[in-house]
TrEMBL record:
This is Putative folate/biopterin transporter. One of its GO terms (cellular component) is membrane. Residues 1-47 are annotated as: Disordered. Keywords: Coiled coil, Membrane, Transmembrane, Transmembrane helix, Transport.
Amino acid sequence: MFSPDRSSHNGEERESGTNYAEPAVGDPLDAAPPPPHRTEDGSTILPNGTIVHPAAERLFAGCPWVRNIPVVGGAVEGYGPAFVLALCMAYFLCKGIADQIIGFSRQPMMTKRFGIDGDRYQRLASLYSMGWAIKAFIAMMTDTFAFLGYTKRWYMVISCIGGAAFALGYGLLPAKESSANIAAGFIFLTCLGKSNVDILSEGHYSRLIRRNPVPGPSLVSCLWVCILTGTLIASVIQGPLSDGGKTQIGVFVSAVLQFVTAIFFIFNMYGERPNVVERLQDLRYAKAALAKAQAEARQADGSTSDVGDELLEKPVKKDLHPENDGAIYDEVQLGDPSLVGLQDVYGVPNGDSNNSEKGGTSPNMVVAAMDEIDEEEQLAIRTCLFGAFEINKEVVSRNWKVVVYCVIMTVSVVTMVCVTILGTTYDLMYACIVLSVVCIVCAFLTLPRVIAKANVFTYMYFTLYIQLPGALDAFYVADEECLPGGPHFTYTFYNTVGAVIQNIGGMIGVTLFTYVFSKQNYQVTMCVSVSLMIIASVFDIVIVERWNLYIGIPDHAMYICGDAVVYQVCYMFSYMPVVLLMSRLCPRGSESMVYALMAGFANLGQTMSNAIGSLLVEFRFPFKSKVPCDFHNVRWLIIIGHLLMPLAIVPLSFLLLPRVRICDDIDVNGHAIHAQLRSEKKRAEEEAAAEAERQQNAGNDGAALYDELGTVNEPCVETAGK
């Protein structure tokens, strides 16, 4: 991936404040140390393999203590202080504070300022999650059409400015009931802007992590710290404003913060390189990977002719953990000529490493031929609208099935937006049925079977746990006039304390998953998740029925033991296993698009969950959140939506998820690899024992194979008998 700096061959040397190489043997006192190895962007490669960004070198020289900051130091070392600062601030301001303020403002804006009833708010609340449901389409469009030379930079600028404008419009709408529908549309559009920034930022830093994977976990940890911190600050801002009847001021703050985020992209603080440069570098990586793969194949066959020594530095070894390979977000799949069109241009058959025997070309001939057309490859990028857009057509041509699915999902979301705002109850019911069937069927038609089943399970998981914001929010914050003897939570408690509890619940979920459930199978984890959801919902029923007062437990104490905490724990239990499953199954080169599809499908499931809650309210269990209030049907909504319907998740987990442990490596059919490897290990042991009787060297080879197979999935194998 990286090459040493060749400037020394031309009589030039790069300066460095640290000597990373030992003096030359033979004249240790007089010989100058050779220059350190550097990557193409000037980063230094230390002897231990650590890659240090040049800006980080300068920062550490003046402020060495920065390197020792937990999490932050590692991220800055690998990716540079400017990028880490810009990325963390973008997530802190946009996805942290700005987005959460919009979320916290929905109920008081809709019911207090615009004056709509709780059942209407139940329907319109789903517009918030719809804005996050078309990530994959945005990712595909921006990768295909580079705007003003960049695939992400200017799209994020437009998203920040446009999203801020819609947030401002949301806050400026007149305080009357007729404004509610327009406000819901503005919420959808401002969330769409934040969603764009999120998915495009993920795409950019995933490329950087692919090139320098070691500090990647530190970078992601920094982002989550910023998001959670932003969530807490948003709750502190919005709660008191909502209690004081000034909810719209928080919305204005959200608009300003989203607008300010655009500054990072205007000045390109992410350091994104032009589309042409990225495409050429992707091509060089693909060429190098292709040449090395063919060289290793020739070495394995015992023929090393026409193979450079630099391609044979490492011994050939079977890759037993291909899922650990990182993801390039954009269009090129490393080492696979079919994704860059090399098999068509250079006569390299796809998947055929022995092409020289079938009339193909040798690796050196391939690389030489490709080196001659770098300029043609650059000119092959088409433009339109006087060069404003560059078209990377292979993004669509190589992933056309996924692109079709992205379009179908986007059309489904837009349809749901229109029907939710303008449609009747029956329109909403028909739309939910038709769009659910279409999206599920298309998932199986366009995605690999195991990935499609995992996506459908994620969708059904979030759909079957019915969201009831209209009923529960109205019940918990209703005043004495509306609900005598009710909980009467303030927005400060409901938002601020609720946010703190949810974050704590999320961290508990991550910890339990990492140390307890990561070695369980998917079905056990989902059964535990459903059980916790049902237990938490019992607390909500206790509060609604006011039983907690009979046993002397205050509403506030009972609330923090219920859905507020446990839902986040269950969310982590359900979502993290599917994410890990995807990491093992995603086609290389299409990972981020498939991840975006999964996230979008999950958000669409939350949208459907809200819609089903609206149908329950409008068809059978109405309630009133205006004086005279009537919440007697809320108990039935909780029983059906939070107790009964989630039970269907358990059989679906057996039907749609692989019956393996979460820690197991699996093949494309969802079967655990370690069982197959144990069989191969046993067979290799028998062959090695037989061979040892005839020839000692063959026995050593068999033992080596035994050792290699024996290292696969050690953590899982150790717990197999427990």
